[in-house]
Automatic annotation (TrEMBL):
Keyword Metal-binding: no
Acidic residues: compositionally biased ranges: 32-43
Family: Belongs to the UPF0065 (bug) family.
Organism lineage: Bacteria, Bacillati, Bacillota, Bacilli, Bacillales
Region annotated Disordered, chain positions: 24-50
Classification via InterPro entries: BUG (IPR005064), Bug_dom1 (IPR042100)
Entry protein name: Putative tricarboxylic transport membrane protein
Superkingdom of this protein's organism: Bacteria
Secretion signal, residue range per the UniProt entry: 1-19
Length: 350
């Protein structure tokens, strides 16, 4: 009897051990599933943790009609029409100082996720030539979205038919040929022309650049007051269609697509081994919340990938050039070093 009792006791003990072992083997799986779900939920919360609760303002640091203004308005339009951003977006023009007036105002909006601005190479150039105390390091880079390019145009009856014709005359007497642009000396329209001309063998320090920031640059070209117009490719299309001007060259690596744009030769195909990219993207005030930065990174990527914005790029001759915040900052730091050496050569750096 004692042996039977011992046997049953032993069997009961084994059953208990096996049952406990089965429970413990299931718990790790449950724990892993819970941790995985928790991680996924956490990632979702990070991406959705900040949402705009009031109207967002896009600032174009210049007057209506230019590249900054067009980019801000087209981005706001697509955001609103597609619902990529559901909150209302307004666009405000703040001209003055080649962008410096707007930058100074936005810098005061420390940490605000509702005051964004669009910018391009002048954000590097203007501070370097001493016309603004604020540069790209003083703001929060969010995303770059496009690449635009420069164009060099002359009147339809001008004696030059390509860039080499123009630069040969400029090599002999650079100051005899005037170049007009809408930006200040040492800023974009000036520097894009100088960069290409220098690569062609023209002395960059002797180029006669005329700054017209009041919207009269094209008029000056058409009435014969100046010889060459340095501008963006989109600003030349209508006048080329009208037969008023001809574009001698553009600063892109390859020809652009479009009925008129595709007729513009690049400097590279004319044997001048240089380009100039007018990158354009969005920034916020200093000290923005990382969650708000993450929100805008995602939204600008959706904008860049959308069919609606692709159509707008094609209409204006823009190329896609998306960069997130970290990529943008690294790019800007490198661009600043390159531009600083050219401004120093021109005697325009502080």
């Amino acid at each position: 009897m004692k042996k039977v009792f011992t046997f049953f006791a032993f069997m009961l003990l084994m059953f208990f051990v096996v049952a406990c072992s089965g429970d413990s083997s299931e718990n790790p799986d449950t724990s892993e599933t819970t941790d995985s779900d928790s991680t996924e939920d956490s990632g979702s919360e990070i991406s959705d943790s900040w949402q705009p609760e009031q109207t967002i303002e896009f600032v174009a640091p210049a007057g209506a009609g230019g590249g900054w203004d067009t980019t801000a308005r087209m981005a706001a339009q697509v955001f609103n029409e597609t619902g990529i951003i559901e909150q209302d977006i307004g666009v405000e023009n703040q001209p003055g100082g080649g962008g410096a007036v707007a930058w100074a105002d936005i810098h005061k909006q420390d940490g605000s996720p509702y005051n964004l601005f669009v910018s391009s190479p002048p954000l590097l150039l203007v501070p370097l030539n001493g016309q603004s105390e604020f540069g790209h390091e003083d703001f929060t880079p969010l995303s770059n979205i496009i690449a635009d390019y420069g164009a060099f145009a002359v009147r339809a009856d001008a004696p030059w038919d390509d860039l080499n014709d123009l630069f040969e005359d400029m090599k002999e007497d650079p100051s005899s040929i005037s170049v007009v642009g809408a930006s200040s000396p040492g800023s974009m329209d000036h520097i894009q022309f100088v960069k290409i001309a220098k690569a062609a063998g023209v002395d960059p320090t002797k180029i006669k650049y005329v700054s017209d920031q009041d919207g009269g640059a094209l008029t000056s070209l058409l009435n014969g007051s100046v010889d060459v117009y340095s501008t963006g490719v989109a600003e030349t299309v209508e006048q080329v269609k009208a037969g008023e001007i001809k574009v001698l060259g553009i600063t892109a690596e390859e020809r652009l697509e479009g009925e008129v744009l595709s007729t513009f030769p690049t400097a590279i195909e004319q044997g001048i081994d240089e380009t100039f990219v007018n990158w354009r993207g969005f920034f916020g005030p200093p000290n923005m919340d990382p969650e708000a930065v993450n929100y805008y990174e995602q939204k600008f990527k959706e904008l860049s990938d959308s069919e609606e914005f692709a159509e707008i790029r094609a209409n204006y001759g823009w190329d896609e050039q998306y960069m997130n915040s970290e990529e943008y900052k690294k790019f800007l730091d490198e661009e600043k070093e390159s531009i600083a050496s050219l401004l120093e050569e021109l005697g325009l750096s502080e």
